[in-house]
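Design job #97: recover the sequence.
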């Protein structure tokens, strides 16, 4: 019967016999002795191949015998019991003995026992491999390795984790306080916590990470209170940054990388978020003080640290905006103080404009370098300068002062090279972008551009084109169309002039005559008095008109004498001078030629000019810097009773003299600007309603405001325009709601 059941004539191994005589004596006892340090021979690290094969064979045979002698279940259970017995009788008492002797001692013992357990688990798995291969798989049981880990978790880890966690946290706090600790020991302990999760980080998160976060919070609450009381804002932030860097390095040195975000978040909450307002407003060292003292490095650190918080930069941006606004208002107050102190209010205040340009340059640089060009701070700069640039002091608006500054830069008497001109224009256009009344700037700039072009005072056509291109980029084609047209007129005019000059040579005129043709819609409107011209001038004009009508039959030309200029040869005593004057001045000088003396009224009738034009005209010739005429009685004011004659005593060191005359035209008309704005508002309303057909009042007002880029109208003005358009039957009120409009 035995031969039938066991054809290979293999002997049957009884359970107790195989366990006691083979497995326990030759494997388990030897392994435990090795782990406890009982064996000093070279076999301390592993079994010899022959020994291992013998033990494996016994286990194999005991698991492959036929029932009822198949001991797979019993061996699986005894594998677990062996590990349990060793852990509870040897390992746990050894660890408890080390408790209370110091964190390093306990963790060192734990590490040694964990290493031993891994060795034991490895060898038992090797001896009982056949169980893993068949019995465990068929019965859906934990593998031998998993079972070994579970026993360690149940009997050692769960029993000791509160003590070992406390030991780890104590060592971490020691390191935070500057002491040197065994990082390798903590790293290996952390790996044990990770292993106890059996493939997940649940054990690590619950048993080490959560207490670590609580401990970290408590540590930094205490540190925060110490630092905030004793340190300035920059010193506090230096310590905070150092602490955050150390915590990040700590994770890299021995904690799981998943803890980094949580650990740093706790630190940020405690040492940054909870004291942000205190740090920013701290007397003597807060954000305003750092800005005022140009503490770039400290501001960069502040930005770096508070950018870690969700809304940490908002309070800083608010302070930056308030600070820049205050600095800008200081510039405005200085201008006001100068005017209050008796300085004449002029539309030319380069000192004020340069102070604003310098302020903008400085804080544009601060925002780029110290705040990394962050959008919040760019908005802070913009909002601050919108407030500054739209706060006017004195008779002239900031728009006018800026336009006049551009006029200075672009005039030929400003000694700037091309690069300096472009740099100045760039800076002005940046400030221009903050103006609400861009249309006012455009109107003034166009008037000044016209004067530069017509009086040949512009330093360079290229510079004029560059400025117009910058404005075009900022505001679009519509904004600069007239200015571009003005430059175009002069470009075309130069070609036509050379053609006309050849025509004039045929007429052998005494005068060197030329005319500039301007397109009416591009240029500002000018006063054009019908002055009684010299016959030679009239002849030249007739020749030009005939020539122009032949070339452009459908165009009508009208003369603007107030814009003309002339060079008059004047002989005073033995010296002759070339007087560069306006056409009106030239005609007045001609009237007093050859020693004639005329009263104000006689001269006015002879020239056919009104009193309002005569007074500035005669003032320029008899009361200005170059008094080529005398008037009696002598005074600096022109009266209707004055008499004028050539000044025989006139003398000057220069041969060429430019005699300026006050402009007969105001730079801009507020009423005209207002009318243009009303037209723009009405056009926007009609454009919107044509597209939308029906719209509610508030929506219409909002859309009009968003479309009008060159100025910001008052909503009441928009409402008035809507009423006007209803009266003119462009719109109607909705029958069901007075707040709704329909497009007609």
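Job complete. Output follows.
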């Amino acid at each position: 019967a035995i031969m039938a059941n066991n054809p290979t004539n293999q002997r049957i191994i009884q359970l107790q016999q195989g366990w006691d005589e083979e497995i326990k004596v030759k494997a388990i006892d030897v392994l435990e002795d090795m782990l406890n340090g009982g064996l000093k021979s070279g076999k301390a690290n592993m079994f010899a191949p022959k020994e291992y094969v013998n033990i494996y064979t016994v286990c194999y045979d005991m698991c492959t015998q036929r029932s009822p002698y198949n001991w797979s279940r019993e061996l699986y259970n005894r594998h677990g019991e062996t590990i349990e017995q060793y852990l509870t009788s040897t390992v746990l008492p050894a660890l408890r003995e080390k408790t209370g002797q110091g964190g390093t001692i306990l963790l060192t013992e734990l590490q040694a026992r964990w290493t031993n357990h891994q060795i034991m688990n490895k060898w038992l798995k090797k001896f009982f491999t056949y169980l893993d291969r068949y019995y465990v798989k068929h019965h859906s049981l934990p593998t031998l390795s998993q079972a070994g880990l579970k026993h360690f978790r149940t009997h050692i880890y769960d029993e000791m984790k509160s003590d070992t966690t406390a030991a780890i946290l104590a060592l971490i706090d020691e390191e935070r306080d500057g002491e040197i600790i065994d990082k390798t020991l903590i790293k290996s302990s952390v790996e044990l916590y990770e292993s106890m999760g059996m493939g997940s980080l649940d054990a690590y998160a619950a048993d080490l990470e959560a207490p670590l976060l609580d401990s970290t919070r408590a540590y930094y609450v205490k540190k925060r209170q110490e630092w905030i009381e004793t340190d300035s804002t920059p010193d506090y932030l230096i310590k905070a940054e150092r602490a955050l860097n150390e915590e990040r390095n700590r994770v890299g040195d021995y904690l799981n990388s998943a803890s980094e975000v949580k650990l740093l978040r706790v630190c940020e909450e405690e040492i940054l978020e909870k004291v942000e307002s205190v740090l920013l407003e701290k007397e003597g060292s807060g954000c305003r003080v750092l800005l005022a003292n140009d503490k770039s490095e400290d501001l960069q650190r502040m930005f770096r640290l508070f950018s870690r918080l969700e809304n940490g930069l908002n309070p800083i941006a608010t302070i930056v905006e308030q600070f820049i606004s205050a600095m800008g208002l200081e510039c405005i107050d200085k201008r006001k103080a100068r005017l209050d102190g008796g300085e004449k209010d002029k539309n030319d205040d380069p000192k004020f404009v340069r102070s604003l340009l310098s302020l903008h340059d400085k804080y544009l640089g601060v925002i780029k370098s110290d705040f990394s060009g962050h959008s919040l701070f760019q908005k802070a700069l913009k909002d601050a300068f919108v407030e500054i640039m739209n706060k006017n002091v004195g008779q002239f608006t900031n728009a006018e002062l800026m336009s006049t500054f551009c006029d200075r830069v672009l005039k030929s008497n400003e000694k700037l090279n091309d690069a300096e001109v472009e740099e100045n224009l760039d800076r002005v256009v940046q400030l221009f972008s903050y103006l609400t009344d861009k249309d006012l700037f455009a109107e003034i700039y166009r008037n000044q551009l016209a004067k530069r072009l017509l009086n040949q005072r512009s330093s360079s056509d290229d510079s004029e084109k560059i400025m117009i291109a910058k404005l075009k980029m900022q505001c679009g084609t519509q904004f600069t169309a007239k200015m571009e047209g003005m430059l175009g007129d002069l470009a075309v005019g130069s070609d036509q002039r050379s053609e006309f000059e050849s025509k004039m040579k045929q007429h052998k005129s005494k005068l060197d005559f030329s005319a500039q043709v301007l397109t009416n819609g591009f240029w500002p409107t000018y006063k054009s008095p019908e002055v009684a011209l010299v016959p030679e001038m009239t002849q030249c004009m007739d020749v030009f008109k005939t020539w122009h009508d032949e070339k452009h039959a459908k165009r009508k030309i009208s003369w603007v004498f107030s814009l003309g200029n002339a060079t008059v040869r004047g002989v005073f005593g033995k010296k002759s001078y070339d007087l560069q004057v306006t056409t009106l001045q030239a005609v007045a000088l001609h009237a007093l030629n050859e020693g004639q003396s005329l009263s104000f009224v006689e001269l006015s009738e002879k020239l056919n000019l009104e009193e309002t034009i005569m007074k500035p005209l005669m003032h320029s010739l008899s009361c200005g810097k170059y008094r080529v005429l005398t008037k009696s009685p002598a005074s600096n004011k022109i009266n209707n009773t004055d008499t004028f004659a050539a000044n025989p005593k006139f003398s000057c060191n220069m041969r060429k003299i430019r005699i300026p005359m006050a402009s007969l035209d105001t730079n801009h008309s507020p009423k005209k600007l207002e009318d243009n704005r009303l037209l723009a508002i009405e056009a926007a309303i009609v454009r919107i309603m044509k597209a939308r057909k029906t719209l509610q009042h508030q929506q219409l007002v909002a859309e009009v405001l968003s479309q009008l880029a060159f100025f910001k109208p008052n909503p009441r003005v928009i409402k008035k325009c809507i009423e006007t358009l209803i009266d003119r039957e462009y719109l109607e009120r909705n029958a069901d709601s007075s707040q709704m409009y329909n497009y007609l």
